[in-house]
Amino acid sequence: MKKITDRLHRIQGQIASIETSIENEVVCSDVIPQLLAVKGAVHAVVQVYLEDALENCIDEADTEKLKKVIKTFIKNS
Q1: What are the 10-residue block averages of pLDDT along the chain, 77 residues in total?
Q2: Fold held by 2-76
């Protein structure tokens, strides 16, 4: 979990930077790459978290829950 929380802290810093850029009316060509970087970072956190959940958190007997998680991930990928 430390790996995930470290990534989330980094994302928070990126978002704070984006917020400051927008408040200071920085040109969009500088803000958009930052937004895309955050999107990629969040996607990476989802992948790491899902991998951990599949290995450790979901009871093997709970196939419906597993199917729902996989379907949600695929839909939002």
Answers
A1: 92 97 96 96 90 70 74 76
A2: Methane Monooxygenase Hydroxylase; Chain G, domain 1 (1.20.58)
